[in-house]
Amino acid sequence: xxxxxxxxxxxxxxxxxxxxxxxxxxxxxxxxxxxxxxxxxxxxxxxxxxxxxxxxxxxxxxxxxxxxxxxxxxxxxxxxxxxxxxxxxxxxxxxxxxxxxxxxxxxxxxxxxxxxxxxxxxxxxxxxxxxxxxxxxxxxxxxxxxxxxxxxxxxxx
Length: 157
Known about the structure:
The protein is mainly α. It is built from 7 helices and no strands. It starts with a helix and ends with a helix.
């Protein structure tokens, strides 16, 4: 079997598990994006709703991990493994002061998203409020991505 065929079989057989893992890790310690995986699965004909939900839950759970580390005050872990500098944390702290919990809607944004999540934990934001805004923001991003992908695929077929 060629490597591409092996990769294709793995994706087919473990697609949603792989998506969950990629989405979780994208929201924690690895500077990866799960968007390509979402696009790949939709382009292979996977049902959009499970793809959106699995990606959203995985990404949300990763954000909860970052929140918890911030909550416990583990700045050494945040800086070393999450590549979030003190400067980024200070910027997001100022953004929280200005915009409040609504900032959590943007935890999916590259570069600042993890800092927003960690700052939420450091500030000891109510976990229910954290969960509401983070899950809404991450799900909205995956919905938009999925429907843009599906629409683009329909256009080119």
